Amino acid sequence: MDSLEILRTLFSLVMKFSRFLPPSEEISNMKTTELYAFLYIALFGPKKMKEIADFLSTTRSNVTNVVDSLEERGLVLREMDPDDRRTFRVILTERGRRTFKEILYNFDRLVRSVLEKFSEEDLRVVSEGFERMVEALSREGSSE
After folding, report:
1. Domain ranges, ordered by start, for the chain
2. Which of 10, 13, 28, 11 is nearest to 102 (CA)?
């Protein structure tokens, strides 16, 4: 499998999963970077603006626009970082938590539906493959 084939496969996988996002106004009106930032905060907890910028591989000024948009929608808010009062971190609001629960519910239904079609051995192989890919990409990213 060459790079183009892997990219096509990953892109197709992401697009298929994205079709199962809940059809809520909060999600359907989000730009891709807003959705990625929202999911990053929802999955990994409160984040500083710099952490979000690093994750998205963008500038802090772009992240400010992304967070402003999410904040206007009532999905996140900035709060003083308890560990460093000179900085802010971005957290989910109650509305943001409800929106994420919708996403997680739909994702769980999709994954359960797909995984029940796999044998135990296939599940093990797929799981190990994803873990190896994440490890390899993490090592690659840490050498920068």
Report:
1. 3-142
2. 28
pLDDT by residue for the chain (144 residues), tens only, comes to 788 988 888 888 888 877 777 777 778 888 989 999 999 999 999 999 999 999 999 998 999 999 999 999 999 999 998 888 888 999 999 999 999 999 999 888 888 888 889 898 998 898 898 888 888 877 776 544
Cβ contacts of 33-40, under 8 Å, gap ≥ 24: 33/58, 33/62, 33/66, 34/66, 34/69, 34/70, 37/63, 37/66, 37/67, 37/70, 38/70, 38/75, 38/76, 38/96, 38/99, 38/100, 39/100, 39/103
**CATH code reported for the domain at 3-142:** 1.10.10.10
0.70 exceeded by pTM = yes
Q: How far apart are CA 5 and CA 14, in angstroms?
A: 14
